[in-house]
Amino acid sequence: MSADKIIVIGHKSPDTDSICSALGYAAYKQAQGVNAEAGMTAEPNKETMFALEKFGVVAPELVTSVPAKQKLILVDHNEEGQAVDGMRDAEIVEIIDHHRLGGISTASPLFVHIEPVGCTSTIIANMFWKNDVKMSTSVAGLLLSAILSDTVLFKSPTCTQQDKDTAAKLAEEACVDLKEYGMAMLKAGAGIDGMTPEQVADTDLKAFEFGTVKAIISQISVMDPQEVLDIKADLLAAMKANCQAKGVELALLMVTDIMNESTHLLVAGEPQDLVAKAFAKPVEDSCVYLPGVMSRKKQIVPPMTEAAK
Ligand SMILES: [Mn+2]
Questions:
Q1: Closest CA to 11 of 115, 97, 140, 69
Q2: 150 C-alpha vs ligand 1 centroid, how far in Å?
Q3: pLDDT over threshold 90, residue 259
Q4: In this structure, what are the phi and psi dihedrals at residue 234, rounded to the nearest 5 degrees?
Q5: CATH architecture of the domain with range 197-307
Q6: Domain covering 6-188: architecture
Q7: Ligand 1 center–CA 18 separation, angstroms
Q8: What is the pairing mode between strands 213-222 and 61-62?
Q9: How confident is residue 123, by pLDDT bands cut at 50, 70 and 90?
Q10: Which of 6, 66, 146, 254 has the highest count of CB atoms within 10 angstroms of its CB?
Q11: How many alpha carbons fall within 13 Å on the CB side of residue 134?
Q12: pTM of the model as a whole
């Protein structure tokens, strides 16, 4: 990528929002004459691939680290632990996000747009409309895919009315049936066919700190959790290896059942009593069953943060 180009990039272990919001926002900036291009920190997952193929869009350039002074627009994250390698010495010119503020500091003032909605792509779609920027059918399709993914077809507690309204409008622009397309996309991504236990344990992995405890939390959303629980021993081994490799004490894996709206939370490392305290339930056989829990951001991170106080 040429040196004067602004890279629009989502978080590590990219999900559909991280890749589609980067593509969407790069298109938005390009339409305004800005030399911006989307990047991605790792290869797209199966769900994202389905969306890219459906709307005939090539995946962004793979950017695993950035040089010092590289101009960056961060989408769908704002925490250093989740950002592309080299971010600390890069120049962050904008942040478009829907997560908590995670403690980064910058050398210069910047444009920040954070809203408590279900998806970064909801924010970006509305920026197109508010500023009368023409949106292509394929960008509409990508932004729609991200909303359906982040809100799990509007079932996640993070979903707002604005996400639903935005998705409905995008579905019209992208000429797809919202429910039908959403189910097909989630199905394409949900399932562990052909994945190693290590790949399952690394799905949508993010780093957090709860008090003094360094932790990683991954999430895999499936139609059938039993096929994941069947390889629990291998997953726990992979999670323990991750703790060692990443220098953290605790690894959690959310096995989220899309249809039943619940999560089996697998726990590796220590302190397990922090997890038990957070959810007021014992960790049994390295697992806590959490009915109604689908959101890491709203239903896992806050109780863990609270329990660590
Ligand atoms: Mn997101």
A1: 97
A2: 6
A3: no
A4: -65, -35
A5: Roll (3.10)
A6: Alpha-Beta Complex (3.90)
A7: 6
A8: unpaired
A9: very high
A10: 146
A11: 3
A12: 0.76
